[in-house]
Amino acid sequence: ASEAEEKDLVIVGGGVAGYVAAIKAGQSGLKVACIEKRGTLGGTCLNVGCIPSKSLLNNSHLLHTIQHDTKNRGIEVGDIKLNLDVMMKAKDTSVQGLTKGVEFLFKKNNVEYIKGTGAFKDEHTIAVNLNDGGETEVKGKNIFIATGSESTPFPGLTINEENVITSTGAIALKKVPKKMVVIGGGIIGLEMGSVWSRLGSEVTVVEFLGQIGGPGMDQEISKQIQKMLAKQGMKFKLNTKVTKGDASAESIKINVEAAKGGKEELLDADVVLVAIGRRPYTAGLGLENIGLDVDERGRLVIDQEYRTKIPHIRAIGDVTFGPMLAHKAEEEGVAAVEFITKNYGHVNYNAIPSVMYTHPEVAWVGQNEQELKAQGVKYKIGSFPFSANSRAKTNLDTEGMVKFITDAETDRILGVHIVGPNAGEMIAEGTLALEYGASAEDVGRTSHAHPTLSEAFKEAAMAAYGKAIHY
Ligand code: FAD
Ligand code: NAI
Questions:
Q1: Which residues are 116's β-sheet partners?
Q2: Rounded to the nearest whole angstrom, what is the distance from the C-alpha of residue 45 to the centroid of ligand 1?
Q3: Substitution site in 147, 165, 274 for ligand 1 pocket (most atoms within 8 Å of beta carbon)
Q4: How far, in Å, CA of 463 to CA of 372, rounded?
Q5: Do 1 and 137 touch, CB atoms closer than 8 A?
Q6: Annotated catalytic, 68?
Q7: Pairing between strand 379-385 and 361-366?
Q8: Nearest CA residue ID for atom 3, ligand 1
Q9: Cβ-proximal residues to 387 (8 Å cutoff; 6+ apart), any chain
Q10: N or C: which end of the chain has fewer CB within 10 A?
Q11: How far is the CA of 315 from the centre of ligand 1 (A)?
């Protein structure tokens, strides 16, 4: 970076929030630089998160299907073997292709990419420790903090990413563990637990709450997916907390007890996955040099235009409020740039979908039943099982349902919850419906191609204001 030149925008962090903001800024004609220390772009999501986990989920699902679900389809296969090394290489190929792709997009959109660690020197200057050695400084009229998050550690269990692992170790194990204990039955625990369970581990998930999938997942849906995952071989201990762990010997000991106190138990495992949530990451950023604080959960405090209390410094993505999701980070990257270039940006936080990529997938958008009950909102439910959907039947993949929750008076859609094949793709329609303020009848009167899984979506909507035809 040339020290003299002041950029219109300097972004610290080249994850989804940062790289998307950088591209948008470049497209908008701003002079922009993005500082990333990892050596590759795309952040947690592309390097060690969304992308590698989905590669392993997809390929482990294929293996599981071939092992357990071919005979009844008239497909006879011979010896089936896992080659974990090749499965990991396939994952790495996907990751490399995508991170390089972002680098190409930087060039195409005139984004200066600075490989190094950035820290605030003053309110307009970032000092960069370059990865290749040496230092530089870069000045910005505007600065975005997009430094993301890291996994929350579990006290007493030191992560080594070999047998005491976070998701980063879980996407790179060199052999299939015999026994894996997963601390936390949230999205990471269930996705990575699924991968290793399918590859042959005996997986036990310990979850503090009374349901898996986190509090955003509709309770009815959570119960259903738990049954399905249990059928696939995963074990669950709900309402149970891990009190301590001892990884000093090869066989790791995990002490658990009932969440409300009482019954204790000792579990053993050869790998333990810590998946109790993620926390914002601002270490070494020099926030103290400019007097910026974080809240009690480590988040940078911002206003509706993503401004910190120093208005030309904004924060986006996992480092600030809201769900820690890549597509949320991406929306914020675009909106934050638009606040600079147009004084207007927009993200609808009520219409951000969530997807859990197990098999079947779970996807939802808007509010769930337990939230609406707590708020005293009067609602209606319309649901439709995939077992009554023609395409699911031809695919011999009929587990799950679509569930609409609508305002009892107006029929406006308040939430859509799906557990079933392809739920993650199907939720886009629910998100669009919510974004446009649609009623269930709007969806129910829209033609959906036959035979598709989406017909279950339409029929669940029909059930919310009237009756489904096929159930
Ligand atoms: P990050 O992606 O964490 O990027 C921040 C970047 O900033 C990092 O690359 C870091 O190296 C860099 N950085 C930090 N400090 C500095 C500094 N001082 N100087 C220079 N660079 C710095 N979300 C989904 O929507 N769908 C999924 O399927 C999904 N799967 C996931 C699976 C796993 C295993 C994990 C862990 C997460 C998953 N997520 C998923 C969440 C998603 O990865 C995050 O929400 C997303 O990456 C947030 O983007 P971000 O840009 O805010 O932060
Ligand atoms: P999470 O917050 O989803 O789940 C953590 C779970 O651990 C909670 O259910 C919590 O009750 C439980 N827990 C906490 N302490 C515990 C203890 N001592 N004993 C037992 N259980 C305990 O966090 P997770 O799964 O680590 O994921 C982090 C973030 O990454 C999430 O915010 C998620 O949005 C994102 N992510 C998104 C994915 C997706 O969109 N498909 C995939 C993976 C991650």
A1: 130
A2: 5
A3: 147
A4: 19
A5: yes
A6: no
A7: unpaired
A8: 148
A9: 393, 398, 399
A10: C
A11: 14
Q: What is the pLDDT of residue 116?
A: 98
- Which of 64, 359, 450, 470 is an active site residue? 450
Write the CA distances from 301 to 78, 309, 316, 322, integer angstroms.
Answer: 58, 8, 10, 11
Helix, strand, coil distribution of the chain in percent, nearest 5: 35, 25, 40
Q: For residue 207, report the phi and psi dihedrals to the nearest 5 degrees.
A: -125, 130
- Report the alpha-carbon distance of residue 12 to residue 21 in Å, rounded: 11
Distance 38 CA to ligand 1 centre (A): 11
Residues 81-96: pLDDT tens digits? 999 999 999 999 999 9
Percent of the chain with pLDDT over 90: 98
Residues near 208 by beta carbon (within 8 Å), at least 6 away in sequence: 184, 239, 240, 241, 259
- Classified as helix, coil or strand, 31 is coil
Q: Which residues line ligand 1 (CB under 6 A)?
A: 12-18, 35-38, 43-45, 49-50, 53, 117-118, 146-149, 167, 188, 281, 284-285, 317-319, 324-327, 329
Q: Which residues define the annotated binding site for NAD(+)?
A: 184-191, 207, 277
Q: Is 189 helix (H, G, I), strand (E, B) or coil?
A: helix
Mean pLDDT of 158-181: 98
Name residues whose C-beta falls within 8 Å of residue 94's C-beta, 6 or more positions apart in sequence: 51, 52, 55
**Mean pLDDT score of the chain:** 97
Residue 362 identity: V
- Predicted confidence at residue 179, as pLDDT, reads 98
ipTM above 0.95, yes or no: yes
pLDDT computed for residue 261 by the predictor: 83
With contact defined as beta carbons under 8 Å apart, do 33 and 10 qualify?
yes
End-to-end CA, the chain: 64
**The pTM is what?**
0.97
Q: How far apart are CA 318 and CA 155, in angstroms?
A: 22
Decide: 146 and 317 in contact? Cβ < 8 Å: yes
Q: Residue 1: what pLDDT?
A: 46
Q: What is the pLDDT of residue 182?
A: 98
CA 252, CA 246: separation in Å to the nearest integer?
A: 6
